[in-house]
Specification:
Layout (H helix, E strand, L loop, with lengths): L1 H6 L4 H8 L3 H9 L6 H11 L4 H16 L27 E6 L6 E3 L4 E10 L8 E5 L14 E4 L7 E9 L7 E11 L14 E7 L4 H7 L8 E5 L4 E3 L4 E10 L9 E4 L10 E2 L2 E3 L8 E9 L5 E10 L11 E7 L13
């Protein structure tokens, strides 16, 4: 909630005034000291153009809360067939290491009804051989707004130190409005009991932004007849950061159209609140740039709190909300708790 509000550059005091909830109540909900209500989530969605991302996150948190409390857990929340148990399985010598997203970085923009395959890489970092384990979907795939997929996939037997790749095929919802679609997966045994409940909070996540036509063309490529064009001169290199670490994403673009850029902005396509997505401002004003001139764009960003690869997509737009053709601009970041590679933000 706070990330969505900050992305829209709204203060907590102003949000309280507009929403009718007290500043203390909203602050407690944003900080997690009190549970947010569905009405609160819906208000934030509408006020800050969440595209369903906050709603999806709320559903995921509620489902996990029910899974941890058998008294609140309904049978309809059980994805696996049979008598799945919410009890977690814990072995001192058992450990999982998330290595990364190999395909479809979080916040990738896709079309409605599009099929794609998401692949994660994980490692057995413990001393126990994995056998009879599954990667199990934690959210409901039956909702019209949800990604469609199978309920679970088999994890091959994996010895300590071994690395594996796990792939799931998804189909995006047939939506008429832009929205965020989210799916979360956790390791479970044959009875549905979850492994690593505390250190593997979100598990493997898939977060995509579904943008239908004609919004896809308007936001991503711009109108075909537009004379307002850009040329990307330099793109941000691969960036590796720690969870929630700040960094700058920098592009150099050239105005190759006939008009001067006055009052133009860099605008993020889609929100930045779902697990696995980097944080940034929603808009950044551009300096005036004449035809043939170059412009450097430096956007302050923050890594997410979830390890993995994510992307953020931006467009250049005019004061009349016309997309400058030649884009979009993208920024890719890898979040690792311990750096395995050097990122451009490392100073030594």
């Amino acid at each position: 909630m706070r990330a969505l509000r900050n992305a829209n550059e709204q203060t907590l005091t102003e949000t309280a005034r507009l929403s009718g909830w007290s500043r203390q109540r909203l602050g407690n909900a944003e900080e997690g000291r009190e549970a947010a209500t569905l009405e609160m989530v819906e208000w934030y969605e509408e006020a800050f153009e969440g595209l369903g991302s906050l709603r999806s996150f709320y559903r995921m948190v509620e489902a996990e809360r029910r899974a941890r409390d058998p008294r609140r857990r309904r049978r309809s929340d059980i994805v696996l067939p049979g008598e799945a148990s919410p009890d977690a399985v814990s072995y001192p010598a058992d450990r999982v290491v998330f290595l990364g997203d190999l395909t479809i970085p979080d916040a990738t923009i896709v079309r409605p009804g599009q099929e794609f395959e998401k692949t994660w890489a994980i490692q057995n970092g413990g001393q126990t051989t994995w056998s009879d384990r599954w990667l199990r979907r934690q959210d409901s795939g039956s909702d019209l707004e949800a990604l469609a997929s199978t309920d679970r996939i088999k994890i091959p037997d994996t010895s300590p130190g071994g690395s594996i790749q796990l792939s799931v095929r998804f189909t995006t919802p047939h939506t008429r409005v832009a929205q965020v679609a989210l799916s979360t997966w956790r390791i479970a045994d044959n009875d549905g009991r979850l492994f690593f409940p505390d250190v593997y909070t979100h598990g493997c996540t898939c977060v995509v932004i579904v943008v239908p036509d004609p919004d896809f063309e308007r936001l991503i490529t711009g109108p075909a007849t537009s004379a307002d064009r850009l040329e990307v001169v330099r793109v941000p290199p691969r960036i590796v950061v720690r969870p929630r670490e700040p960094f700058f994403c920098t592009w150099t673009v050239r105005n190759v159209g006939p008009m001067s850029w006055q009052g133009y902005e860099l605008e993020r396509i889609g929100p930045a609140v779902a697990p696995g997505t980097m944080r940034s401002s929603k808009r950044l004003p551009l300096p005036e740039t004449g035809p043939g001139a170059t412009c450097e764009i430096a956007l302050a960003c923050w890594g997410s709190g979830v390890e993995g690869t994510s992307t953020a997509t931006f467009r250049l737009k005019s004061a009349a909300d016309h997309t400058v053709t030649g884009g979009p601009l993208t920024c890719n970041v890898v979040v690792e708790r311990i750096h395995r590679h050097r990122g451009v933000n490392d100073s030594t």
